[in-house]
Amino acid sequence: MSHARKVLIAVIILFAIMIFVECKNMDLDEETAVNNDNTKATEQLDEETNETINEEIKDFTFSEGPKKIIDDGYYCVTGVLKNNTDETYTYAEVTFRVYDEDGNQIGTIDDSINYFEAGGTWKFKAKAIFIDDQDDIESYKFIKVIAF
């Protein structure tokens, strides 16, 4: 088997694993922390203190933000996420829900990084590029961080 074919198969397998993990996490309650063999997730933050609701979850913390900004006309949530573990994760993703002025969810936004270093920080920017009317977005809520 050629080297290129082996690389293609490895990429397909990695992509399938990422889809499986994301689908599995979609079924979980947002206020339940996940700590299984392949994925770690944080819980929802207390809106006033930005502290995790469950103090036992310390794998990831926001060292800055999250906060709302407008970048090139797009609504974004930015911040700095710290990996509090001694493990480098091949993939990490932070996700937020966005709401209109009536509190209706109108979408989700996320950002991801490859090779999130052990003990490192990541300056993320979750951009609402797939939401048609940016002016409809009134607020956001942190959902989760996944990493594997």
Reconstruct the topology from this structure.
Elements: H1 3-26, E1 40-41, E2 60-71, E3 74-83, E4 89-99, E5 105-116, E6 121-127, E7 139-147
Antiparallel strand pairs: 1-7, 2-3, 3-6, 4-5, 4-7
Count of alpha and pi helical runs: 1
Q: Could you tell me how far the N terminus lies from the C terminus, measured between alpha carbons in angstroms?
A: 28 Å
pLDDT < 50 stretches: 23-44, 48-57
Q: Report the portion of residues in β strands.
A: 35-45%
Structural class: alpha+beta
**Number of beta-strand segments:** 7
Radius of gyration: 16 Å
Count of all domains = 1
Mean pLDDT comes to: 77
Order of helices and strands: HEEEEEEE
Classify the helix fraction into a percent range. Answer: 10-25%
* Major sheet size, sense and barrel closure: 4 strands, antiparallel
The strands making up the biggest β-sheet line up spatially as: 1-7-4-5
Characterize the quaternary organization of these chains.
single chain
The dominant shape is: globular
Give an overview in words:
The chain contains one helix and seven strands; from the N terminus they run αβββββββ. The chain has 148 residues and is of the alpha+beta class. It has one domain. The strands form two sheets. Strands 1-7-4-5 form a four-stranded antiparallel β-sheet, with no helix packed on it. The chain has a three-stranded antiparallel β-sheet with strand order 2-3-6, with no helix packed on it. Strand 2 and strand 3 form a beta hairpin. The protein is globular. About 22% of the residues have low confidence.
